[in-house]
Request: fold
Amino acid sequence: MPRVSDVDTIAPDDQITSTPTPSPVKKSVTLKKDKKVTKTPEVVTSLPTTPNTNPLVESVYKILGHTRHPFSSTLIHPHVFDFQERDDDEIVLVVARQHWFTNVRWILISLFMVLFPSLFRFVPTLLEIPGTYLFVGYLFWYLITFAFAFESFLSWYFNVYIITSKRVIDIDFNNLLTKKYSEATIDAIQDVTSTVIGAIPTVFNYGNVLIQTASEVNELEFGRVANPEKIIKVLQEVRDQYKGGQI
Amino acid sequence: MFPQINTYMLLVQKFSFVLGSILYLLFAFIVVKQTTMMSKNVSDKFNTVLITFAYLHAAFAIFLVFLTLTIL
Reply:
């Protein structure tokens, strides 16, 4: 009786069902891949509406570049930034603060206040004060120093000038509990002027941008912002695209 | 007579320190209120850090009041 060559691999009693099953699995895998391939074109078609490929955002990037660091005085299309009055479909293009050099004054004052208690050793009468009073006095002085520096930083950090796809906004916190909010729509902007006055502003290139509008708020002023000429270019670009119906 | 004047002067000093620390505590609470209000109006990355600093500042102000009442 001739020996079947494949008797060890396939026994006569075994039901050979293995061969059909692999092919459907393979087919399903390829189908899934095809499905994945077909999904990406849908994603591609949705990309133009995302901010990354928004032509207005791209033109702002071309004018101002990209944000260097979170404490920069100009944030270009920040991803983590919001304000209460923003509309859902409104894109924040530029967030400007006063130039960093405007903080030098309060930083120097704070440093002087930190070092001031070390001058007490040159005043002998002060050394006769009881130690507990001196300790509490030092603590009080350093708390005041921290409060002064913190308030100055908050004033710089939260007084922002915002350019969005629809409006120009000025948010000011004048003192401890006063907020001033001014806005003007892009189509209401009539005239934009920038001024750079003084030696230090000229060296560091910061100045004022005055925006005259046809709205109830006659003018908005971006005070001591970096690169005022580029801010004007951004406003012109936004206005052109707004008038062109691209926004 | 002079020791009594000295005692009165120390009392006046202590009262001034306590009053000053309480007023400063009120100021610290206003700073906390101001920081939270600013953070609500303008949301940014470092809002949490700034609010934390404001609360720490208020905590130190409370500690200052406690110190003026106990140590002085």
